[in-house]
Amino acid sequence: MIVQQFNSGLGNQMFQYVFFRQLEKHHPEARIRADLTWFAWNNVHQGYELEKLFGIRLPKADPWEIALTSGQFPHTVKGYRYINRILRIFDKGYMEKHTTDEMSMDDMMSYDAGKNIYLTGFYISEKYYRDDLDEIRKVFTFPEKELESSSVMVHNIQSMTAVSIHVRRGDYLDPIYKDRFDLLGEAYYKAAVQRMREIYGSPHFFIFSDDKDFISRAFDWIPAEERTTVTGNSGEDSWKDMYLMSRCKGNILANSTFSTWGALLNKNDDVHVIYPKAYIAGTDSEIKTLKGWERL
């Protein structure tokens, strides 16, 4: 049996789902389940969104399956602390626990699905989605009935040469994360804007962020008539920013899976995407081979 944990925000959940699909594809004979219990005790971001937005219903692991593969009962089970102490005593390595973001397809296919395996990670490498991107885009189709409030902005985006700019701040400013993720500065965005002007001529920049107050003043170096600060999509409507980014002609990304998916869902034939070399502190981002993607 294979149990994969799902956690974190929407962008990470989408990458985790793509990996879950690969597991099902390569191990059709195995019992593969999703551990969604992280969302029961962690209230960051907007919770579990895959079912609400895309109608994805994953086969859920029950507490016993989670315990069997991970050696730990989930936090939602009453008395789990006492039970987990007992499980640790009897955990003699009969289960395999994996934490990886860099598993090759060969590794995935060579899994012994007869063993109990618990997987946790984010799986952001393009090798997991590159060959199936058209099919994945069909799965990640946002609910049309929820998009009426964005119709004016969509019209504005489609009426001009629109380039999105995404700025990730939010939890990156938290003491827990500030030393883990690079906080992209003005130099990156100025270079990316200049590059997009070279490609598209005179684009109009639509600026998105989880810190609306910051972007309302941080991009004054772009003439006011050439930029639009997108506001209003916060809380449960945050996903609409991802949708709007996907409708732009080009995308300037932050070191964020949220804006990465905004670009991956972009179906424009001549799309150009600029993504940062800086990602996790001290570690460069993956070099993408997707058409039109440029690392800066």
Element layout with pairings:
Elements: E1 2-5, H1 10-26, E2 32-35, H2 38-41, H3 50-54, H4 63-70, H5 80-90, E3 95-99, H6 105-109, E4 116-120, H7 133-139, H8 151-158, E5 162-167, H9 186-200, E6 204-209, H10 212-218, E7 227-229, H11 239-246, E8 250-252, H12 257-264, E9 272-275, E10 278-280, E11 283-284, E12 293-295
Parallel strand pairs: 1-2, 1-4, 3-4, 5-6, 5-8, 6-7, 8-9, 9-12
Antiparallel strand pairs: 10-11
In total, how many beta strands?
Answer: 12
Beta-strand residue fraction? 15-25%
Give, in spatial order, the strands making up the sheet with the most strands: 7-6-5-8-9-12
SSE arrangement, N to C: EHEHHHHEHEHHEHEHEHEHEEEE
What's the domain count?
Answer: 2
What's the CATH topology label of the largest domain?
Rossmann fold
Question: Which sheet architecture does the biggest sheet show?
Answer: 6 strands, parallel
Q: What distance lies between the first and last C-alpha atoms, to the nearest angstrom?
A: 41 Å
Q: Describe the oligomeric state of these chains in a short phrase.
A: single chain
Can you give the helix content as a percent range? 25-40%
**Tally of alpha and pi helices:** 12
Stretches where pLDDT is under 50 for at least 5 consecutive residues are 82-95
CATH class value of the largest domain:
Alpha Beta
Rounded average pLDDT: 86
Determine the structural class based on helices, strands and strand pairing.
Answer: alpha/beta
CATH architecture of the largest domain: 3-Layer(aba) Sandwich
Radius of gyration: 21 Å
Global shape: elongated
